[in-house]
Write a structure and sequence with these properties.
This protein has 365 residues and is mainly alpha-helical. It contains 15 helices and 2 strands. Helix 12 runs antiparallel to helix 13. The longest helix has 27 residues. The N terminus is likely disordered.
Length: 365
């Protein structure tokens, strides 16, 4: 399912409408995005030290897991325009990979289990090849339906295959860590996975491979006519997006301490990460991260605060109405366009331009 390419934020000379270069004082000053990203990572790193409450750090771990998943999903769906609703297959595969290898390889509970996360990502990535070869033979709405159908096939397999133990589930060994700091190892390892996923997303977007994906998103037939190996590029992005999702599934299983088919292969997972990406800004670097940070933290907070309550669904609805009415393209693209318009207006008025918009555009794009 293809979606239109998001318009790039105006910046530099383009903000003045072209022609002669504007005066030096009226040009946009583009600051590198890396200092801002380093500050953000540093804030995340000190979060468990400042907010050490067990409930708060539990919410933070779940939020990081979904930030990884949404960012990875965006590598394929955001950049190629194909709306995939079957990534729960890779999430569940990663979860069962960690659970089964921990048992079969007799991995002791503790830090050693974290070494299985790359294995979970590798298995998910390998599985994405045959799944992609089948699903990517179709386009648009048919592709969405095929990914959903594949998901339900794997969900049924998880319920019926003997090594998954069906509805009984698989129990993982619990690390003998202090109850007060139990969540911190999960937080920091997931944070490392998140940083690696964002770096992968950035590298894809800035590469020739990423340009080919965006050409497919804009007009697949035209991209094919220009020599883009469409099927190979789509399959490569599909596989790359599956690897971090598999690692996130493995982390989810280990943190939860048990895994069940209805949890590992949850259809709401795909809906959730898609909504997170759309809320923050589909096809941007920071959009899925912001969407996951807002939605998952709110859901976990309301779930823990109001047991057996669906209040978070009401908050979801209100939040999406606000975004649709005020920020229809998502948070990051809409804010980038707002700041770009202000810079262009400042340039026309002959004043200096703010660097805030350049920072937003740099992080989002």
């Amino acid at each position: 399912m293809t979606v239109p390419a998001a318009a790039e934020p105006l910046s530099g000379a383009g903000a003045t409408g072209g022609g002669a270069a504007p005066p030096a004082r009226g040009r946009a000053r583009h600051l590198p995005a890396w200092p801002l990203l380093i500050v953000v990572v540093a804030l995340f790193a000190v979060f468990p030290l400042v907010f050490s409450d067990v409930t708060t750090t539990s919410i933070a771990v779940y939020t990081l897991i979904f930030m990884v998943s949404a960012s990875a999903w965006n590598i394929f769906s955001g950049y190629s325009g194909y709306l995939a609703l079957g990534h729960a297959v890779f999430f569940g595969t990663g979860a069962y990979t960690v659970a089964l290898t921990e048992q079969d390889w007799h991995v002791p509970a503790g830090w050693a289990v974290f070494a299985l996360m790359p294995v979970a990502g590798l298995v998910a990535g390998v599985l994405a090849i045959p799944v992609g070869l089948v699903a990517l033979r179709t386009r648009r709405h048919t592709f969405v339906v095929v990914t959903i159908a594949i998901f339900f096939v794997f969900q049924l397999l998880a319920f019926n295959l003997p090594f998954t133990d069906g509805t009984t589930g698989i129990q993982l060994n619990t690390p003998l860590w202090s109850a007060y700091t139990y969540n911190e190892p999960f937080f920091y390892v997931t944070l490392v996975i998140l940083v690696a996923t964002v770096a992968l997303s950035w590298a894809v977007r800035r590469s020739r491979f990423g340009l080919q994906l965006m050409a497919i998103r804009d007009d697949e037939d035209r991209a094919l006519g220009m020599g883009v190996r469409v099927r190979r590029v789509k399959l490569g992005a599909f596989m790359l997006s599956a690897i971090p999702v598999g690692m996130a599934g493995g982390m989810y299983a280990y943190f939860l301490g048990a895994i069940y088919p209805q949890v590992a292969f949850d259809p709401l997972f795909d809906i959730a990460i898609a909504l997170m990406a759309f809320l923050g800004g589909l096809g941007t670097l920071a959009g899925p991260l912001i969407g996951a940070l807002v939605l998952e933290s709110l859901q976990q907070y309301f779930t823990l605060t109001f047991s057996n309550s669906s209040l978070y669904l009401i908050v979801y609805g209100v939040l999406f109405l606000v975004v649709i009415l005020l920020l229809p393209r998502g948070i990051v693209p809409s804010l980038g366009q707002l700041f770009a318009s202000r810079r262009a207006r400042a340039a026309r008025d002959g004043g200096g331009e703010s660097t805030v918009g350049a920072d937003v555009a740099g992080v989002s794009g």
